[in-house]
Every structure is written in C-alpha cells, then in structure tokens.
Amino acid sequence: MTNGASNRKVGIVAFNNEVTIVGDGHKEPQIVTGDNLFDYEYLIQNGTQQGIERMNQTIAESGKKLQEKLMKLEETGPTALGPAIASSIAMAA
Questions:
Q1: What is the pLDDT of residues 32-77, one digit of tens each?
Q2: What residue numbers bound the domain in which 80 lies?
Q3: Which pTM was predicted?
C-alpha cells in the first residue's frame, strides 16, 4: 500500500434481507433485522456506536481478515440497501 493507505480504517457493511455490520473484522458481526431496518433513528444511532466499537484497526492490521470475510459473502434474496447505507454513513462519521 502506498501514500499512507495502510494507516486508514476500512470496514464492511453487507446487506441482503438484513444488514450485517462487520466493521474491521476484529469482533463478531452485528446483524440488524426486523423493524430496526425501517427505523432511521436507530440505524444512525447504532451505526455511530458500531463505528466506535468496530472501526479500531487500520487496514494494515485488519486487511487479511477483511479480505477473508469479503470472499465468504454470498448473494441471497432481497436487499436492505437503504438501511446499509444509513448504517455505513453513520459509522464513517
């Protein structure tokens, strides 16, 4: 990695009929389901909290683990794109 990219933080938020917050991969993923997928306030508050809890390692520290988790993702069913985006933006903030 060049230009200091190895010091940046990167995380995964996956979605299908639920939202799976992996973050930097150092903790077990959090699954967001049910009515929480339609609760904007919850998504923003939870995303902010998950950013604090799950975005602590740099890409240099978590890259290999994240790559493994990414390769295990599978496409299934309908998608919760909106809730995944709201969660991701709150985590990044």
A1: 999 999 999 999 999 999 999 999 999 999 999 999 999 998 888 7
A2: 5-92
A3: 0.85
d(CA 17, CA 28) in angstroms, rounded, equals 19
pLDDT for the residue 1: 45
The SS3 call for residue 51 is: helix
Q: What is the DSSP letter of 67?
A: H
SS3 33: coil
Look up residue 40 and give its amino acid.
Y
Q: List beta partners, residue 32.
A: 19
Q: How far is CA 6 from CA 3, 50, 56, 73, in A?
A: 8, 21, 13, 23
CA distance 87 to 81: 10
Count up the domains in the chain and report the number.
1
- Which among 21, 6, 25 is positioned nearest to 66, based on CA atoms? 25
Using N-to-C axis directions, what is the helix angle for 40-54 and 81-92, rounded to 10°?
Answer: 50
